[in-house]
Amino acid sequence: MKILVPVKRVVDYNVKIRVKADGTGVELANVKMSMNPFDEISVEEALRQKEAGKAEEIVVVSIGPAKAEETLRTALAMGADRAILVETEDSVEPLAVAKILKGVVEAENPGLVILGKQAIDDDSNQTGQMLAALLKWGQATFASKLELGEGSAKVTREVDGGLQTIEVKLPAIVTTDLRLNEPRYASLPNIMKAKKKPLDKKAPADFGVDTAPRLKVLKTEEPGGRKAGIKVGSVAELVSSLKTAGIL
Amino acid sequence: MAILLLAEHDGASLSDQTAKALTAASKIGGDVHVLVAGASVQGAADAAAKLSGVAKVLVADAADYANRLAEPLADLIVSLSGAYDVIIAPATASAKNVMPRVAALLDVMQVSEIIEVVSADTFKRPIYAGNAIQTVQATDAKKVITVRTASFAAAPEGGSAAIEAVSSAGNAGLSAFVEDALSSSDRPELTSAKIIVSGGRALGSSEKFQEVILPLADKFGAAVGASRAAVDAGYAPNDWQVGQTGKVVAPDLYVAVGISGAIQHLAGMKDSKVIVAINKDEEAPIFQVADYGLVGDLFQLVPELEKAL
């Protein structure tokens, strides 16, 4: 089986982002960029399935600017076999990303697509579910365990109040949650080898997808702040403060 | 304008997240119809009919909807969608699973996790783990929206809407339910609790987490939360996780124990009415959002607090 893993280049999760003063967005110039953490988990899961003999080839794909090649090289250094970059300098919404990915799936015919449950920049949590809808495939979102079988996959999902296990027919969409695995680091020799792995370049137009946004961003602003309160010296003082404030 | 609100429920009862999403729906304006889909859902349907602002309750009572599998539920919503301008749901795990599928089937770009209704087509939503707030205008004719319920008050009771059965839209059988492993507990549910006691990595082990956090939570009658660091370290189950990648909560009182206050955690709890932080590091960022901070050894202070209540 072939596994397709879409990855997104986002602001590194350790960076404290800054909102532009003019309200037009978030400052992205000279900011460290990395692979979306949930996508790292997706790449890792695909690698583990391959290592377990359940998959033969792992193809990673990114839709984004020319620099997203770095993100794809990271995935190749982790162990993916080849990469596709659908290059666009525009910001592409989840619905359009899903439409492009549908085109990639039709060209590549994977038995499984593993995506991160959400990207940590726009926090939409939509692309996997949308891709499943467009392909008319089953979906297993927020996975914390994935067992690939013959013609189906058993997936344990993180839901409110605990876990749900479902069986989904293949081909299918799986989106990853935090506890699925701990992604590996790429070793230096593998980073060198990744530079020679094949990387195809495409454009959204190759898939006939219009990426014009459907959501018009009117403004981006800082969240309302919360002021620090007081330090209390003891448990007794804490309890009496809470009582005075009418909380207890 | 007609609005279809997907109810969150467990069959017998309605989650108060539905009542909170109803408040957001009412702000958009128009007749709100609540869809209660599941198996044996009379209790939840009756509760939805009593909410003030509900014009009608639609009940899809069929085995196919019992486990809220995304594919049949999305097909059901799409089958009803023709009559509605807005399809909205509280951003629960189950709605986050199904709503984008609905949106794509309708060729609509979803607006995820709104925190404010600016006008009928314009909404505020958090991005970058709540470190920025975006105002977006949805240009699709139909809107598909999920609601961050911590930002809206629950709609009160006082209605008496008619309840109407709708027929099943079938099930293509793309996925099947195997089992649920839901944590059974007498404690309140995290997203609707009035008080939450949360533990962080400073607890040091799963045993200590149980030993220190749970008795305090029980004394408060509180739900139990955890930071992502505590969940990653295996001290607490993932469904206790409060933060951008876990649950977003806004209780009356949030007690953060041994939590440093990483950005991603603050994003999940900073709308709480009152925040108490107990941490040995007085420079910890949690104190920048806490109303009451107590600096010291949690292993000594928490049992002391429990006794003092």
From TrEMBL, chain A:
Pfam families associated with the record: ETF (PF01012)
Domain named Electron transfer flavoprotein alpha/beta-subunit N-terminal: residues: 23-211
SUPFAM superfamilies: Adenine nucleotide alpha hydrolases-like (SSF52402)
CDD domains: ETF_beta
Keywords: Electron transport, Nitrogen fixation, Transport
Function: May play a role in a redox process involved in nitrogen fixation.
Entry's family note: Belongs to the ETF beta-subunit/FixA family.
Complex and partners: FixA and FixB form a heterodimer.
This protein's name: Electron transfer flavoprotein subunit beta
Organism (species): Rhizobium oryzicola
Automatic annotation (TrEMBL), chain B:
Domain of life: Bacteria
Pfam families in alphabetical order: ETF (PF01012), ETF_alpha (PF00766)
Keywords carried by this UniProt record: Electron transport, FAD, Flavoprotein, Nitrogen fixation, Transport
Xref: PANTHER family: ELECTRON TRANSFER FLAVOPROTEIN ALPHA, ELECTRON TRANSFER FLAVOPROTEIN SUBUNIT ALPHA, MITOCHONDRIAL
Homology family: Belongs to the ETF alpha-subunit/FixB family.
Quaternary structure annotation from Swiss-Prot or TrEMBL: FixA and FixB form a heterodimer.
Functional description taken from the UniProt entry: May play a role in a redox process involved in nitrogen fixation.
Protein name: Electron transfer flavoprotein subunit alpha/FixB family protein
Species classification: Bacteria, Pseudomonadati, Pseudomonadota, Alphaproteobacteria, Hyphomicrobiales
